[in-house]
Specification:
- By secondary structure, the chain is mainly alpha-helical.
- It has a single domain, classed as Farnesyl Diphosphate Synthase (Orthogonal Bundle).
- The protein is 72% helix and 1% strand.
- A two-stranded antiparallel ribbon has the order 1-2.
- A hairpin with a 2-residue loop joins strand 1 and strand 2.
- Helix 1 crosses helix 16 and helix 3 runs antiparallel to helix 4.
- The protein starts with a helix and ends with a helix.
Amino acid sequence: MDDNFLRLEKYLADKKEVIDKHLDKYIQVKGPSKIWESMKYSVMAGGKRLRPVLSLTTAELLDFPIENVLPIACAIEMIHTQSLIHDDLPGMDNDNLRRGKPTNHVIFGEAMAIIAGDALFAQAFNLIIRETPKSVKPENILKAIYDLSIAAGAEGMCGGQAMDITIEKSNEEIDSAIVQYIHTHKTGAMLRTSVRSAAIMADANPEKIKALTSYAENIGLAFQIVDDVLDVVGLTEDLGKTIGKDQKSNKATYPRLYGITESMNMAENHVNRGINDLLIFGDKAEYLILLAEYILKRKS
């Protein structure tokens, strides 16, 4: 294990601790209703926290206090968790394991899982407005919220999920355009806004936002390609979710289209492009580069 990977592991652990502390604070179980318990169960179930880490790392790169982006970083994690709760439902992927624990609907029932997901989505935007420090320009907060709303909705994550379901149920032949559309929307859009929203709040100039956007788009696609591969060759105990479901469900994936080796070559190519996008930042982009390299090596 090289020194860079060890440094990244410590960096990720430190950032995850900060993020988990704030997520725990932002979702307090209130009253007799099971909804808060259901929301907190899934948000605090674990996970890599890659999306909020990207937000904090982007802020650091731009010399912007991470406290200013912690609310939107945690909001992004809430929306990501909402998507997992709904993705695991019987009407979607029908999975019983997520992050190494029983899925939300297994514990709380299908109806409560749906409501908890809806509530997390709403709570995320409430959090940004309520908790973002007043030192951040109000117009930048609005721009970041707009960017996140696009990434999470029909033009982003939800649109990608809808296409994924449509293709799965149609048994149509898939091609590269369909697979790329699904991946860049279902997964890539939220990874992109994790970087972009932090840059927007930091009042970064257009050149820097353009470079960071391209970086995020490339690593977002690489991340999902590797996820596809791990569904074929990974281990349930590493991934914390059921493996092999993509193949059984006839999902549109890169391994199905290109095979394992070519898929990993494509992921590496996107990571290299993403790293190249960061050249304008010099050594300050060290941890964004290490995060990009980590995507290729991850086992979970």
